[in-house]
Amino acid sequence: MSRGTRAVIDLDALRHNLRVARQAAPHSRVLAVVKADGYGHGLRAVAGALAGLADGLGVATFDEGMALRDSGVAGTVLLMEGVMNTAQLQQAAGAGLDLVVHQPWQVSMLLAARLSRPVRVWLKVNTGMHRLGMEPAGAALFWQQLRASANVTDLVLMSHMACADEPDHAMNRQQQEGFAALVQQLAPAGASLANSATTLNLPGGHYQWVRPGLMLYGASPFANTPATELDLRPVMQLEARVISRMVVPAGGALGYGATWQAPRDTPVAVVAIGYGDGYPRHLSPAAQVLIKGVRCPVVGRVSMDMITVDVSAQPDAGPHTSVTLWGPGLPVEAVAAWANTVNYELLCQITGRVEREYRGGAE
Ligand SMILES: Cc1ncc(COP(=O)(O)O)c(C=O)c1O
Fold first, then answer.
1. Which residue pairs, CB below 8 angstroms and at least 24 apart, start in 90-98?
2. Final residue of a domain: which of 220, 248, 280?
3. Sign of the CA dihedral 231, 235, 221, 51?
4. What's the CATH number where 324 sits?
5. How much distance in Å is there from the Cα of 162 to the middle of ligand 1?
6. Whether 146 and 277 share a structural domain
7. By CB atoms within 10 Å of each CB, which of 33, 257, 266, 325 scores lowest?
8. Is 207 a catalytic residue?
9. Does one domain contain both 244 and 201?
């Protein structure tokens, strides 16, 4: 019998969330971002469920792009870090992958290469985030060189927003203005700026392609707006089972470091999930799990394979009882806040030991 620690992935919710992105940006094509194993949900399953709904898929690396092609995904697949060498460039071109070009050496490599077929290039410019992208002053030269190259079919201009998750941040306007100036200068047939937060909140940043990631998985990109308010449905429900239960007597210590002492005789359930499964080790004392609809506090340290939960509020909990770590009824955003991190990280860091179980996803 399996340990019961699993991520139940609702592919219908994923498809619903894609439609929410499309409604938010009705005049744009949607490049669904599926990097990092579909934000931890499973690259192939996510790509399969989005087939026919998304206009393209975005991944970070060459390997992720080739994995999509190997699993039979046709159509637009964008490598958002581009390729790292000529061998990758040739294979990517052969596989019909789109490439981000963000460094002068990538332009030189592309201009000098002999390719079996030309590629579509997304020239990335830095509009203020200072991570990947050409400096705007030099962008026109690279743009012209790429446009003149027989190795390039067509060109999209792109950039990435640093602070769109904070609607009032001054960078949002600065980056949008900088990008708009480049769009005016270069007059690309296609342009792309929007992540989830921009897709949902900054219509001026939509252009021809939006690139939502997080929102597709039903998580909110905004600290103060729950996903449900954005009509997003959680895709992942992380579950585990109670494997033991005992009463810690008043004053008794619990777990590594004896960091928690029972204030009174306390029923405690041991749940089969820990940081070896990707559940965060560092949690504030406010952290909770959901047992049959009732929130119960996590007490004591998170260990590699187990957590311990005060089940005073759910006295029926015992061996085999199902526990929800996040999902419907307990947003991943709440757990991220207790762990002093972001929902992105929690979703991505679920390890291979956790079974993925897929529901829905058909037309
Ligand atoms: C270049 C690029 N575009 C789009 C996205 C999607 O962002 P989000 O998950 O915030 O929607 C990412 C994710 O980090 C990215 O790196």
1. 90/115, 90/116, 91/62, 91/66, 92/62, 92/65, 92/66, 92/119, 93/117, 93/118, 93/119, 93/151, 95/65, 95/66, 95/69, 96/69, 97/65, 97/66, 97/69, 98/56, 98/122, 98/156
2. 220
3. negative
4. 2.40.37.10
5. 10
6. no
7. 257
8. no
9. no
Structure confidence by residue, pLDDT tens digits, 99-125? 999 999 999 999 999 999 999 999 999
Do 131 and 51 fall within a single domain?
Answer: yes
**Strand partners of residue 299:** 308
Range of the domain at 260: 236-359
* Annotation says 275 is catalytic: no
Do residue 145 and residue 250 come from a single domain?
A: no
Confidence (pLDDT) at 361: 83
pLDDT digits (tens, 9 = 90+) for 70-103: 999 999 999 999 999 999 999 999 999 999 999 9
Q: Are residues 110 and 19 in the same domain?
A: yes
Among candidate residues 280, 276, 297, the one with its CA nearest the CA of residue 347: 280
pLDDT at 363: 56
My answer on whether 187 and 303 are in the same domain is: no
290 in the same domain as 144:
no
At residue 2, the pLDDT reads 81
Same-domain pairing of 28 and 147: yes
- Rounded distance, CA 238 to CA 260, Å? 25
Q: In the chain, which residues have pLDDT < 70?
A: 1, 363
Q: Which residues surround ligand 1 with Cβ inside 6 Å?
A: 33, 80, 160, 195-196, 211-214, 221
Give me the catalytic one of 39, 124, 217, 256.
Answer: 256
- C-alpha 13 – ligand 1 centre gap (Å): 19
Please identify which residue in the block is written with the tokens 């697949």. Answer: 77
